[in-house]
Amino acid sequence: MIGRRLRLVETGPIKTSRLVLRPLGEGDAERIAALAGDWDIARMTARIPYPYSVALAHQWIDDLAEGEVVHGIVHRGELVGVTGYLPDDEGTAEVGYWIGKPWWGQGFATEAADALIRQCFASGKIGRVTCSHFVDNPASQRVITKLGFQLVGPARAYCDARRREVATLRYERLRPKRFAWLRRAA
């Protein structure tokens, strides 16, 4: 809704062997703008404009969609990226992530997204997770493959940084059977 501030869903921190995923705060806007404002990052996401200012980062944090879960990815006390998901009313959640350039190639995107997806399934409300990548982003494709997603097919998505629609590949992952009892209990 225009003009209405929506609240971020607070889920608390998630810890992995190397990372902490924690809810974002207003104090993260400057760091997010600095990292995500890099053309090589912004052009591979749907929602990050280019150039990306601190004011735009504040606006994004303030205006997250209702029910959206977003975490800062922290390594050794330093914010290195962001991951999150947006659930719908039918038990599906769209997952996204980005990692700052200095930390590329270290497996942080895979580790963070895996932890987030596990939390998503463990909530008992999500039975299917989807994600996509632009066809010119093979690094994200490798992350998605490592996470066990199955290809659904081609699509198109608008990219704020490129200011146009871009060819994408869409994927899905179903909740594992070990979480099946949650759906009955929820």
Q: How does this model look, in words?
A:
The structure is a single chain. The protein has 186 residues and is an alpha+beta fold. It has one domain: Gcn5-related N-acetyltransferase (GNAT) (Aminopeptidase). The chain is built from six helices and eight strands, in the order E-E-H-H-H-E-E-E-H-E-H-E-E-H. The chain has helices at residues 29-36, 39-42, 54-62, 108-122, 138-146, 180-185; strands spanning 14-15, 19-23, 69-75, 78-87, 92-99, 128-134, 150-159, 164-174. An eight-stranded mixed beta sheet has the order 1-2-3-4-5-6-8-7, with helices on both faces. Helix 1 packs across helix 3 (54-62). The model is unreliable at 1-10 and 181-185 (pLDDT under 50).
What helical percentage do the residues reach?
25-40%
CATH superfamily: Gcn5-related N-acetyltransferase (GNAT)
The sequence of SSEs as H and E is EEHHHEEEHEHEEH
Averaged pLDDT, please? Answer: 91
